[in-house]
Amino acid sequence: MEMFAKSRNLIPFLLRSRKCCYNTNSTAAIFIQRRFDSVKAGEQLDLYNYREDFDRDDQHQQTLNFPGGRVPITPRMKFISELSEKRLPCYRVLDDDGYLIPGTIFEQVSKELALNMYSTMVALQTMDTIFYEAQRQGRLSFYLTSTGEEAINIASAAALTLDDIVLPQYREPGVLLWRGFTLEEFTDQLFGNKADYGKGRQMPIHYGSNKLNYFTVSSPLTTQLPQAAGVAYSLKMDKKEACVVVYFGDGSTSEGDFHAGLNFAAVMEAPVIFLCRNNGWAISTPVTEQFRSDGIAIKGQAYGIRSIRVDGNDVLAVYSAVRAARQMAIKEQKPILVEAMTYRVSHHSTSDDSTKYRCVKEIEQWRTEKSPITRFRKWIQRNGWWADQNETELRGNIRKQVLEAIQAAEKVEKPPLTDLFGDVYDKVPSNLQEQERFIRDTIKRHPKEYPSDVPL
Amino acid sequence: MGGSSFRRIGKLASISSKNQSCRGFSSTVETLKKTDQLTPTKSVNLFSAINQALHIALDSDPRSYVFGEDVGFGGVFRCTTGLADRFGKQRVFNTPLCEQGIVGFAIGLAAMDNRAIAEIQFADYIFPAFDQIVNEAAKFRYRSGNQFNCGGLTIRTPYGAVGHGGHYHSQSPESFFCHVPGIKVVIPRSPRQAKGLLLSSIRDPNPVVFFEPKLLYRMAVEEVPEDDYMLPLSEAEVLREGTDITLVGWGAQLSIMEQACAEAAKEGISCELIDLKTLIPWDKETVEASVKKTGRLLISHEAPVTGGFGAEISASIVERCFTRLEAPVARVCGLDTPFPLVFEPFYLPTKNKILDAIKSTVNY
User: Per the CB < 8 Å rule, is B131 touching A209?
Assistant: First the structure.
């Protein structure tokens, strides 16, 4: 965890004054040409303000006092447009070929950190490939990959410290991997064996680790968002130098809990990073059928939440944006919304065939040339930090380790029957004691009806 | 339904509880004190008793929080009066008007080892939070293999008929929550019970939905110990001993049932009245023992009869006491209509409906 300690010192954060933010030219002014000059991402913070022509009336404007504060009046009847003229731009550091975009401003990344992020992305990709195959072979009941979203997983995780608390959705196992969840811990959960922390009670991929501050995955979408506000409020009350990071997808933003979570976090001034993986698809529903807004980031302002849209397939952009978001969330004690643009390359899960509703060519393009791993590899190779030989070695090693972990987890016995009844409450109540006795009697009478691999 | 009849609740509550042994439920029985030994007491109504419990909860645990819609100024039923002034706006605060937000936020707060005491302004409005309660709070411990829990969560919410509440200020939705392993459902009948049960619920290491009979907030007055005390969860209490028929109820309905019992007594029928107090996990043993003695059972609740918790009690007791039953189990409950305004007197399980059912069951 040395990297955490190091990276903590990286950002002496500069926030532009509010006055400056009102300067409509500030966007352009900040993007001064500094070719290949890696500096601190926080400095480029630009706050998008409400810039309709209401502002032009300003100077002599009269105001009315309402319960929420003074509001300027205007003689013109003008509706707010449903869409701004231009779509919200996406913060990017590396272009498709892994070159730094001229003038880009980002968080400096050491060779060690870069290689660590790269290796972990490759590990995630390899893990996904093998687990997916294991499901296809019938060894796992279910699986769900993060293919195409490796950069969001790993770069966001790398931008945090272990004290930051993660409330995942389900396509963020890379965050756990980065934090040190071992391949054995993954496979124990996937096989629901007795070493699984969840005691075999949940479907595969519902990981959780108290030790690693990673809340256990639950299938219902978006329930974690209002919870994140509550967790963050606790950090705030305890004056912790930490924030909450809550992950969710584009489909989740249609749930009521999205509204509840953002509004509560804003009102309670809770240090939460809302990290949306806008991967374009909620199972088969494309974003065009999910909402009519320009994505997610623009929704932040309506809640009073500072927001950014970032290229989710750009490791350096995600890393820089999340570092900056974290710094603001903790220093200013408020929520930040990050919309990471990406593409769900995989099927939704092993129960889905996305070629039924998507063009194969499109999927293939995102899987290959637009892959965040490929792009980042170009950058590290150009820096002279990585060679083809390293790649072969890395992939070979990880593949071997994942296969070994599967073989080991498969052999571990299932959790004992008592685990069916524990943890419903802190103690087993009498109705469950009675039901346990009943089940045990039934097993004695009909032993063949029950799985033989569950120890009684 | 005059005020005087609710004052009688005080008498009910003063019947000393049976000294029952721990049943293996998770209520912290060992920390309980016997209420009768506590002094001094003060005559207070139910909302004041709730208010006392909240003061004690916030005072005795710096990691406890009280919040919900309009709780900052004291709440629409005055239950949170004085809390924000005394404990500050960081620990006692208004939330946005969003029940799923309130409960979701509370789960997150509770998961960080805090006592999150959330108020849903009316039980009729708890449904937007249903997913958070059923899929999240109730399964938080189980699904994580006890790596995480939100046991510090208590959801307080006023329920029940008041005479003019119509569809959306009258409902008794407790049975929805009784179908959910992982939470506890608690309903007090009187001020003294409310204070002791609420403190137990707040300190219980499991999430609790605590329904408060809002009809009794002002009407029910009794002597309530001013000290910090707790009453055990998952322990029913025999309020009135009898030999001919067992009546089981909870919350505000108990005073109606008590009136019916008193009327029945005049006609020579001896009724045993049980306050269930905790609906899940419930004290089957106390009800079973009573029915084995009386041979008859009547359950009464305001919620619609179909799928109400009375059905569960009936089924369980038939399973356990079939050969001892002298008559079918009677249910005197709300009708299977939405809760009506003008027709409320027709809808409700009133004293005479109960009395009739007592007689027909005894004379079966």
Answer: no
A210 touches chain B (CB under 8 A): yes
Amino acid at A314: D
A326 in helix, strand or coil?
Answer: helix
- A137 contact partners, CB below 8 Å, separation of at least 6: none
Give the residue-averaged pLDDT of A167-185. Answer: 98
Residues in A touching B24 (Cβ below 8 Å): 427-430, 433
- Residue A246 vs residues A354, A424, B108: alpha-carbon distances, Å: 26, 26, 12
Distances in Å between the alpha carbon of A342 and those of A274, A377, B36, B266, B300? 16, 18, 65, 77, 57
pLDDT digits (tens, 9 = 90+) for B153-199: 999 999 999 999 999 999 999 999 999 999 999 999 999 999 999 99
Residue B257 is encoded by which pair of tokens? 């049932």
Model confidence at A45, in pLDDT bands (50, 70, 90)? Answer: low
Of the residues B169, B212, B222, B312, only one is catalytic, namely: B169
**pLDDT at res. A78:** 93
Which residues from chain B sit within 8 angstroms of residue A225, using beta carbons?
Answer: 104
Q: Nearest by CB to B142, from A201, A209, A264: name it.
A: A201
Which pTM value belongs to this model?
0.90
pLDDT tens-digit series, residues A66-119: 999 999 999 999 999 998 889 999 999 999 999 999 999 999 999 999 999 999
**CA neighbor of A253 nearest in space, from A338, A347, A172, A157:** A338
- DSSP letters for A63-88: EEEETTEEEE--SS--PPPSS-SSPP
Distance CA(B76)–CA(B98), nearest Å, equals: 16
- Tell me how far apart the alpha carbons of residues A48 and A71 are, in angstroms, rounded to a whole number: 19
Q: Give the CA dihedral B240, B242, B245, B247, nearest 10 degrees.
A: 10
Residue B128, sorted as left (phi over 0), alpha (psi -120 to 50) or beta, turns out to be alpha
Asked whether the predicted pLDDT for residue A6 surpasses 50, the reply is no
Instruction: Convert the pLDDT of each residue in A363-394 to its tens digit.
Output: 999 999 999 999 999 999 999 999 999 999 99
B96 C-beta neighbours (distance < 10 Å), count: 15
B356 Cα distance to chain centroid? 25
Take residue B76 and report the two structure tokens written for it. 């629409």
Which residues 301-340 on chain A approach chain B with CB closer than 8 angstroms? none
Told to judge if B99 belongs to the known catalytic residues of this protein, a careful annotator would answer: yes
Among B309, B37, B93, which residue's Cα sits nearest to residue B180? Answer: B309
Token pair recorded at residue A44: 């480029």
Residue A339 annotated in active site = no
Cα–Cα nearest to B279, from B246, B234, B321, B243: B234
Is the pLDDT at B27 greater than 50? The verdict is no
Q: Tell me which residue has tokens 């009941």.
A: A141
Which DSSP letter does residue B96 get? -
Yes or no, beta carbons of A216 and B132 under 8 Å apart: no
In chain B, what residues touch A233 (CB-CB under 8 Å)?
Answer: 105, 108-109
**Residue that has been written with the tokens 């000290």 in this structure:** B227
Chain B: give the shortest CA distance to residue A419, in Å.
9
**pLDDT of amino acid A61:** 77
B148 with A210: Cβ contact below 8 A: yes
pLDDT of residue B38: 52
* Residues of chain B found within 8 Å of residue A166, distances taken between Cβ atoms: none
Q: Is the pLDDT of residue A444 over 70?
A: yes
